[in-house]
Amino acid sequence: AMATGSGKMKEVLTGTTIMACTYDGGVVLGADSRTSSGNYVANKVADKITKVCDKVYLCRSGSAAHTQAVAGYANLYLNQHAIELGEKGVCVRSAANIVKEIAYTNKQWMNAGMIVAGWDKNEGGQVFVVPMGGTLMEVPFAVGGSGSIYINAFVDKNWKPKMTKSECKAFVRKAVSLAISRDGSSD
Amino acid sequence: MSGIGTGYDLSVSTFSPDGRVFQSEYAQKAVDSSGTVLGMCCKDGVLLAAEKLEISKLLEENSNRRTFPIDKHAGAVVAGVSADGRAIVDRAQGEASNYKSMYGDAIPGSVLADRVASYVHVFNLYWYVRPFGVCTMLASYDHNGPQLFMIDPAGTSHKYYGVAVGKGRQGAKNELSKLKLADMTVKEAMFAAAKIMHQVHDGEKGFELELAIVSDETGRLFKRVGKAELQEVEAAAKAAIEAEDLDMSD
Q1: Alpha helices in chain A (DSSP H)
Q2: Tens digit of pLDDT for each residue in A41-87?
Q3: Is pTM, for the whole model, over 0.95?
Q4: Please, are residues B222 and B211 in contact by the beta-carbon 8 Å criterion?
Q5: ipTM greater than 0.90, yes or no?
Q6: Is residue B103 less than 8 Å (CB to CB) from chain A?
Q7: Do B111 and A85 touch (CB under 8 A)?
Q8: Is A88's CB within 8 Å of B104's CB?
Q9: Any idea which residues of A carry the catalytic annotation?
């Protein structure tokens, strides 16, 4: 996909499966590790789960460049915010709101579907989904990326509230694995 | 005419040789000569009280508000130049709204206090503005619990259990120090505040008491205390004062 005669290189995408799920006491996040640029696998070992602040992570799908930039800005603003708050930690809702503000304000230029998930002292484990367009929704669990379509029915059927940590981990592992097995852009 | 700060007190951007900024101190004097204002932080909420001195017999009741909501969970009372106070409250409301837009959550009391203090401080730095002649008390109740802050005209912010400024502050502080605020409820504090206000009120002219609270009872919403409840509290306070007077005079 690099220097061939057949025209421009395709934009590097995280054709992806990402997922986050709350359980009794926290959240579990999961993702595949394939970054594709058309049919070429640009990165086999990509880390699509990025820290934005203490105990809050961002699952990235869509354009790798766009989501990395969002994560970078979110990290910057949330670090400043953490200083202002002092001892109190940044809450997951605030982190998600900042991600949403960036996504919504720049919606014209962005190709990014993201899931913000983490834990804070006051509300425990939370999952927020910021799909393309810049909506913000709090949900008990969320799936995203091109591979998510293959597991929507699976997660809807198999999710239950107040899972234990090991049940939740097994649930996320199973779901993401199933998506990977069917989605060519996830691995 | 020569005074204490002669020569070094013309501008807020000038220090005196003994390291004082006289204009900031003069701003504090504007607060010291205004009606008494109290703040009390209790175990289930925060109370703010203002002594509204009667400036005219033709004034409509409740017309010159001294307590203001900053957001649903927070409010303020100002002492000093009330026009200056309104400008600060306006800013505080903007900060609270802006914080909610950015961070999706109600502004914590300490952050609001820092923002207001920074704003007030700016007016103590430049020669082309004057300091606010206002002490601002901020009450808030969020998941950090009930909190009370005060910002003085110099832009210094502190967290308090109980605080009093204005004409009757000496007497009020005395009375406040006798109370165990951390063990009291806001309901009990309302009665105590009314009593203190009536005790320290100086002069023949009357005054109107304005009370505002944010507590468990109000659902953690900042509300002004209504007329009926206010009259009840004031009547009880006045009765208690009279009873004490009777006790003392034998």
Answers
A1: 64-85, 92-105, 152-158, 165-182
A2: 999 999 999 999 999 999 999 999 999 999 999 999 999 999 999 88
A3: no
A4: no
A5: no
A6: yes
A7: yes
A8: no
A9: 16
